Amino acid sequence: LPKDHHPPPPTHFPARKLVSRSVYALLPLAFLHFYFFPRPLASPHIATTAPVFPTLSTTASPPQRRPRAVSPAAAAAATAPPHCDLFAGQWVKAAREPLYDGSSCATIKDGQNCMAHGRPDTGYLHWRWQPRGCTLPPFDAAAFLRRLRGRHLAFVGDSMARNQLESLLCLLATAAPPELVYRDGEDNKFRRWRFRSYNATISVFWSPFLVRGVEKSAASGLDHNELYLDAVDVRWASELWSIDVVVLSVGHWFLHPAVFYEKGGEVVVGCHYCPKLNHTEVGFYGVYRKAFRTALNAAATDTGGGGRSRYVVVTTFSPSHFEGEWDKAGACPKTEPYAEKTVEGMDAEMRRVQLEEVAAARRRAPAVVAVEALDVTGLALLRADGHPGPYMYANPFADGVPERVQNDCVHWCLPGPIDAWNEIFLEMVRRWAAGDAHRVRRCK
After folding, report:
1. CA 148 to CA 426: how far, in whole Å?
2. Residue range of the domain that includes 136
3. Please, what is the angle between helix 345-364 and helix 285-301, to 10°?
């Protein structure tokens, strides 16, 4: 408007009255339009172009990219409901073959190489985990390695942690070869691999208690373990500054006889199954909780400074399936999963301790740290068919059925059910990328 032009005085609004009356007349027509011709609401979706680990990329993506093919696994992930409970579901028969076998993967521990050791049945290989309400995509090795680019993933714990690690290595080897770059000793307790084409690192740390401990052995002269419940195991904790993702997995070693200490060994808390010692019997559930609390405090708070983010995952207790004596031929003879089985007794209590400590650690953790449970206890309980059993050794019945035969009804055949742990792990990480880290499951 020209500078000398002014609007009419406020007492004259013929144009505004006309507009107001027009609006009142049009409102009923608008409601009728939306009633008979409703506009669809936008449906929620998970972004498939964002990195799975939010902190893995240090440079911005270019504004334009050449279109690329989408794998079936990625397509399935893009269409899966974002908030279904990954750990409630069932095992269903699957026609697809495992992604690897005992000859194509060189990192399988000999005792878990069931196919190479002559296990005659193969049905245990053809089941997949089906969460209720969504589809769990097949493992996508290249997608996992892209998200791990430039980062360090560490498995910390006992032989079950190693079992899950070796499953993951075999799965990832279908996309890129792992290169062993570090080994401490010949017992494979501390190892590190590099996927050079992805600049990704994966380590395993033997730490069967997560806290500082002395294992019973001829070398230590002990017939029981010694645990220091308020002191984290420095063998892995001293490297936390370099670790971006840490998976903690322990349980079965807490069932062994042990003496428990606090305050640097000055205070004896008690013991578990130590009739020859003058200590109070305290069982192992309480000390199991204390050990997890100590470990989670370290993993969730020691981020190396500078606002470095970290993902902390606790793989929950994996039940064993011995039927009768461990040295009988049929110690775990199942060849198909259970259709239904309830987690109870010791398995339920061990799981409960872990879930409660995960929830507590999540509340204490800084904003840059996500703490989650990979809650496999229930789905593992159903897979009594997936253990090596007598095939922890090669051809155990080549010369007939011996009177005594050692069985492994604790660890898992590779390939086998434990590969599903890592399929779920990848899906959990996809949800982290979508900002849903604390909705992976309900902690019951």
Report:
1. 11
2. 91-443
3. 30
